[in-house]
Write a structure and sequence with these properties.
Layout (H helix, E strand, L loop, with lengths): L14 E7 L16 E2 L2 E2 H10 L7 E5 L15 E5 L4 H14 L7 E6 L7 H12 L4 E7 L4 E11 L14 E12 L5 E10 H14 L6 H7 L5 E4 L10 H14 L1
Parallel strand pairs: 1-4, 1-6, 4-5, 7-11
Antiparallel strand pairs: 2-3, 6-10, 7-10, 8-9
Length: 263
């Protein structure tokens, strides 16, 4: 088990902002990469960079993009932009970003802020809150919200539809089999949080956990989960529920409303 290191924390580290935009967003169901979805005349990626630009802690941004991305460098952004080429998995893209930051001469105790291209509505005060929390931590901090809805654990069950009762015996029907999800039990949500971004980590510790992920071929969904594998505590900072992620087409309607209300 890892313990919190007893080294003095640099409370005025440099902040290296990174947006991971190398994915395709397959669940979104469009032919274009999700980060280039248009909302209010700008791409999702432009909106997300503009949000980071609102923080006085951030004065430039590294975009991690796919090798075949021909769009990002044609756009205008609210911050000076550097680029890195990402990998197939999210952690590989973050690792590529970390390597680029290290090559720029960053110090081990600097902070890396990682944000999703698909979260264009994160409030400025939340960005500052999570940065300031991470400054006081040996490993880092992330935005998250306590789970408010009832959580159900499900199981799959297959059903078979036989011939209708009134169908003549001489008529042969196709038997249809379907699989549905059913509620198995309710999960206690009292200690459950829904992770958001930005997530902010010490540069050297982030490099360490990503190396561990690569060596052990771990499947992780965010950077904080890599720290969890090594029992390195990451602080949870309560964020706004406006900071939703564009995952499905219907989310665009809600995000457009949020962005309009925030402007």
């Amino acid at each position: 088990m890892s313990t919190i290191q007893n080294r003095p924390m640099n409370t005025t580290p440099k902040i290296h902002a990174m947006i991971v935009a190398a994915g395709r967003g397959s669940r979104f169901g469009t032919s274009i990469a999700k980060q280039y979805t248009m909302l209010q005349g700008q791409t999702l990626l432009q909106h997300s960079v503009a949000r980071l630009a609102c923080s006085a802690y951030i004065n430039q941004c590294l975009l991690v993009i796919a090798a075949d991305d021909n769009t990002a460098q044609t756009l205008n952004f609210a911050l000076p932009i550097e680029y890195a080429i990402g990998g197939v998995e999210r952690w590989q893209s973050v690792q590529a970003g970390v390597e680029a930051i290290l090559q720029s001469g960053a110090e081990d105790s600097d902070l890396v802020l990682i944000h999703d291209a698909a979260r264009p509505a994160v409030p400025q005060q939340d960005i500052n809150k999570v940065i300031e929390a991470a400054m006081l931590e040996p490993y880092g901090a992330i935005l998250a919200t306590p789970v408010a809805d009832t959580l159900k654990q499900s199981y799959a069950h297959s059903t078979t539809q036989s011939n209708p009762v009134n169908e003549p015996a001489t008529v042969k029907s196709t038997v249809n089999s379907s699989s549905y999800s059913y509620a198995r039990r309710t999960i206690d949500r009292s200690n459950m949080w829904q992770a958001q971004t930005p997530q902010v980590f010490r540069l050297d510790q982030l490099q360490r956990v990503l190396t561990y992920v690569a060596e052990h071929q771990l499947a992780i969904t965010d950077e904080a989960s890599a720290f969890e594998h090594l029992e390195m505590p990451i602080r949870l900072v309560s964020g706004s529920r406006q900071n939703i992620k564009l995952t499905y087409p219907d989310d665009a309607i809600l995000l457009t409303a949020i962005l309009s209300a925030q402007s």
